[in-house]
Amino acid sequence: MKRRAFIQLAGGGVVAAAVPGLSGCSTAIPPEAVAAWQGPPPGAEVREWILAHAILAPHSHNLQSWLVDLRTPEQIMLYCDPQRLLPQTDPQSRQIMMSHGTFLELLDMAAREKGLRADIELFPEGAFAADRIDRRPVARVRLVADANVKRDPLFAQVFRRRTNREPYADQSLPLEATAGIAQAVKDYPVRVGFVGKDQPEPLARHRAIAAEAWRIELTTPRTLLESYKVLRVGPDEIATHRDGISLMAPLPRLLAALGLFDRSKAPAADDAAITGQIRDFNAKLQATPGFFWMVTEGNDRKTQVRAGQAYVRAQLAATALGLSMQPVSQALQEFPEVAGPYADIHRLLDAPQPKFTVQMWARLGYAPTIGPAPRRGLKAHILSA
Ligand SMILES: Cc1cc2nc3c(=O)[nH]c(=O)nc-3n(C[C@H](O)[C@H](O)[C@H](O)COP(=O)(O)O)c2cc1C
User: Fold this and answer.
1) What is the 329 CA–ligand 1 centroid distance (Å)?
2) Which of 163, 227, 316 has most ligand 1 atoms within 8 Å of CB, for mutation?
């Protein structure tokens, strides 16, 4: 059924458009985009079985920059796809390296399920420079049969883990929960911390810094446009790309379908599209009952990868405890406009620069259940000869 919809345009105008039943359109991600969450295909070779789990790892902007070379038996060489970087918001590719750590950690857990020890050698041909990545491998993984290898209980959460961007319930975090998350990363070189409703003043500071950094990212044209580039609006774009940030809400879909959502230009800072997003995220932050963070001493490439390994463990532990996480990376980013919130969060978390780096900062709380995010599927990651 067609109906008329009145749409408030960026810039203030209103249009009336004949559209298919707007309120009735599905907000579910197309099944082919989330097929990877069904698990490895039957009969998969062991390395493919392992990798089918690793590709479910969290990655900044869901870019999935993992490329693997399987030409040497019992070995997986991991590379970073240089086409899948975020030069504006992640100019040093620190978050990209963390996103390789998340991948390697799930790879390790999956190998254990098969009785294999994953001997992971990071940067076997040398580490990338601090400000760029290159074509050398991120890791060489040798899989070795080992009767002493132990299964990791967190593996059970791999298919249940989500980055949850919904509003979180106004419910305090129990001590067992924060202790459980800290326990999951105790062998990793990170200092973790939590703040909750029992500390209203620091909690208010967390919310304020996160809000300010978010406002800056959204009102800085080049950083906003970088996110627009990986925005996938509606089922067709989501099914075609199976990466990036999926948007299934009716209004942006409608605007995109009508050619009214121009992703090549940044709206002005006072545009309703921007102020609305800032308002919505502020409301979520105000209701967020807690934050989690991870600080490292040093910030070299190995430390970044190790921080990513720790992050996915923390998120899996939170999942096991019924808790959700959403990183709020904006204040941790290294682009100049966000330097104020960057300094503020490092000060608040007692992480003076340059000795310490806040590698991860996330909302933490109880949230409604959501579905998984798209994945490109295993084949997209395997380098052919
Ligand atoms: C290093 C890193 C930084 C991230 N930063 C953000 C962020 O600032 N905001 C956000 O909503 N998600 C962030 N994410 C989560 C990714 O967007 C998410 O992993 C991706 O969209 C895939 O979704 P999934 O985790 O539900 O599988 C980050 C993830 C990683 C690994």
Assistant:
1) 9
2) 163
Q: Whose CA is nearest to atom 16 of ligand 1?
A: 60
The Cα 57–Cα 87 span in angstroms is 21
362 alpha carbon to ligand 1 midpoint, in Å? 10
pLDDT, tens digit (0-9, with 9 covering 90-100), for 227-245: 999 999 999 999 999 999 9
CATH architecture of 33-159+371-383: 3-Layer(aba) Sandwich (3.40)
**Looking at the predicted structure, is the pLDDT value of residue 319 above 90?**
yes
Domains 33-159+371-383 and 162-230+260-365 share a fold: yes
C-alpha dist (Å) from residue 254 to 17, 23, 226, 281, 371: 9, 11, 22, 22, 22
CA of 6 to the centre of ligand 1 (A): 33
Ranges of each domain in the chain: 33-159+371-383, 162-230+260-365
Query: How far is 95 from 101, CA to CA, in rounded Å?
Result: 10
Question: pLDDT digits over 128-166, tens only?
Answer: 999 999 999 999 999 999 999 999 999 999 999 999 999
**Superfamily designation of domain 162-230+260-365:** NADH Oxidase (3.40.109.10)
Ligand 1 centroid, distance to 236 Cα (angstroms) = 22
Q: Which residues pair with 6 in a beta bridge?
A: 16
Pocket of ligand 1 (CB under 6 A): 58-62, 95, 98-99, 102, 162-163, 165, 326-329, 373
Residue 255 makes CB contacts below 8 A (sequence gap 6+) with: 7, 261
* Distance in Å, CA 298 to ligand 1 centroid: 23
Q: How far apart are CA 103 and CA 29, in angstroms?
A: 23
| Residue 385's pLDDT band (cuts 50, 70, 90) | low
Ligand 1 atom closest to Cα of residue 95: 1
